Amino acid sequence: MPIQKNKLLKRIYKWRYKHISQKTFIYILSVVVGLLAGLASVTLKNITYFIEASLEKGIIFSSNQLYFILPIIGLTLVYLYVKYVHKEKLNHAVSSILFSLSKNKGLIDVKQVYTQLIIAPLTVGFGGSVGLLGPAVATGAAISSNLGRLFHINSKTRSLLIACASAGAISSIFQSPIAAIIFAVEVFSLDLTMISMLPLLLASISGVLTSYFFMGNEVLFNFTITEPFKVKDTLFYILLGVGTAVASIYFTKMYFGIINLFKPLKSPKYRLLVGGLTIGVMLYMIPPLYGEGFVFINNLLIGDHIQALGKTPFDNYIDNIWVVIALLFGITIFKAVAMTTTLAAGGAGGIFIPTMVMGSALGNVVAKLINNSGLGFTVSESNFTLIGMAGLIAGVQHAPLTAIFLIAEITGGYALFVPLMITAAISYIITKNAVDYTIYTRELAESGELLTHNKDQAVLTLMDLDTVIETNFKHVYPEMTLGQMLHDSVAKSTRNIFPVIDANHKFLGIILLDDIREFMFDTKLYTTIKVETFTHKAPDQINYGKDSMQTVMQKFQDTGAWNLPVVNNGIYMGFVSKSKLLTAYRRELIKFTK
Predict the structure, then answer these.
(1) What is the pTM of this model?
(2) Is 336 in contact with 364 (CB distance < 8 Å)?
(3) 33-37, 193-197, 376-380, 557-561: which has the minimum mean pLDDT?
(4) Cβ–Cβ under 8 Å, residues 168 and 388
(5) What does the alpha-carbon distance between residue 139 and residue 40 come to, in Å, rounded to a whole number?
(6) d(Cα 13, Cα 27) in Å, to the nearest integer?
(7) Are strands 497-501 and 469-470 parallel, antiparallel or unpaired?
(8) Where are the beta strands (DSSP E) in 30-72?
(9) Are 359 and 391 in contact (CB under 8 A)?
């Protein structure tokens, strides 16, 4: 059977190369990827909704104590699946894609195609306060990566197809094809050229058509703008931009803070127990934290904050608008906590939709504060709810254009385009200055593995240190005599530098040919002077596995050296020469800009 399968694939390859150009084939694949990513998104949503509906029918949700139980059950099921089926550590969906693009040539394990389809619905369906967008993008990316591998697509085109998959997934979930394309460009640092534009467009259209085919006209946000932008409200939108920026900084810092709090809990069982109970307590106090939160957003958009808040321990005071404002502000504060706790406890999900929930609550709070301040001002609470979402997306994701076009598309028009730009721009500028990297990118940036729109930095990130390490240097030992060095190393070497190592290959220093030149022809010194006499420190050294290519290039620039040794935990590995590094850089740059 495998032989027959290989023969069939070979026939398909031959037919493809003969009848379909590379450009046309990429267009075809982008459509296929968009359809499959859209289908994965629809599947994720339906499985999650099925779990939620089953729990609603089988459990009386008005009994709030049950909220303690559900997150623990969901996290336990995810833990069992990861331990006995997946058998690998779970990584953040979008971060793992960014890593594969920068350091793994866009190759993603085929297990990721189905893993997210299982663990994300279990997490969200049982009350985990995370979103499905990240898992949908990860599933689509895995599909596109493995399709590219199947058809022997090069790494650059494979990266484009992964971006197409993300566009297809987002377009399917939100039915917003333009925002989906912009997300792929902003988050995956894709160069928007005519070469990439058309595949992204085809994938995005395919994704939204898949959603229409399976879901009909059902949309996440059934809302039409009735109150247009008023110039007199400009100052309030500026204030909302500042508020969403502060909330974005809080969101990001809270994420890393809670992740660090869970690190001392080495056992996944302890993380599961602590995280599950913590989420349960928060759900008891603030039920809208349950799951993704789209119902909460929709209720706020239609002005029904009572339904949005649901049953809480504060129902006796819900008629007081200041209690309502306090509860909504509580959602703004605790959504980030609940989301991060879910992920730290072992759950799977994304941060995009929790960002929207937090933004909608904050926008609504700001509008209610203005309307109830007693100063005679009146603003649209639904508009502020929408624009609050845009502000948080722009700040947390560092994706202002995605935020603007997403909200514009899901509301069916551009009536709020000006306030969207005001709030999103202010939020992005303030947050970007306060927080250099997003939740997706910080760890990758710190390790030098992040692709950006900066071409020089992107090319260095794509380079692999292993490809520029040279090992044809003759090493010497400190106890060797000058005569032994000349006979065993200098006479047989084509290089003018010699690494000094001990018996365990630990790097001790270097000797240059110039260091021994004046002693080379004095035979009397051959047996009296040892190598350790000439040994000195290298100008610097490259730490294998720790130094990024940007750091390597910086070390050459700072030292002015032409060769630097490479060590791995003190063990000598070889040298990197400036000339070979620059040659590899030029080669990668040509490949990158083709």
Answers:
(1) 0.76
(2) no
(3) 193-197
(4) no
(5) 7
(6) 16
(7) unpaired
(8) none
(9) yes
